[in-house]
Amino acid sequence: MLTRTESPAWFALYTRHQHEKAVAHALQGKGVEVFLPLYNSLHRWKDRVKELSLPLFPNYVFVFVDLESRAVVLSSPGIYDFVR
Prior knowledge:
There is one protein chain. This protein has two helices and six strands. The protein is α+β, with helices and mostly antiparallel strands. The strands form two sheets. The protein has a four-stranded antiparallel β-sheet with strand order 2-5-1-6. Strands 3-4 form a two-stranded antiparallel ribbon. It is elongated, with a radius of gyration of 16 Å.
């Protein structure tokens, strides 16, 4: 039987709505390489204008891991699953 060692690769994670930054921060704390592209946008309310950093791809965070680390990644709060 051949055993294939998986090398790290980029995977997309599907996250809870508006939890992308929290998921990225939690994964970075566990030593996982994370990519979360953000863009700045001005939002206006009646009493103020604020510049927000919003995710370029809502509900998605990208991670560079091997598949053996899957359980560590999925145990973080706010993550539903890997995109298949």
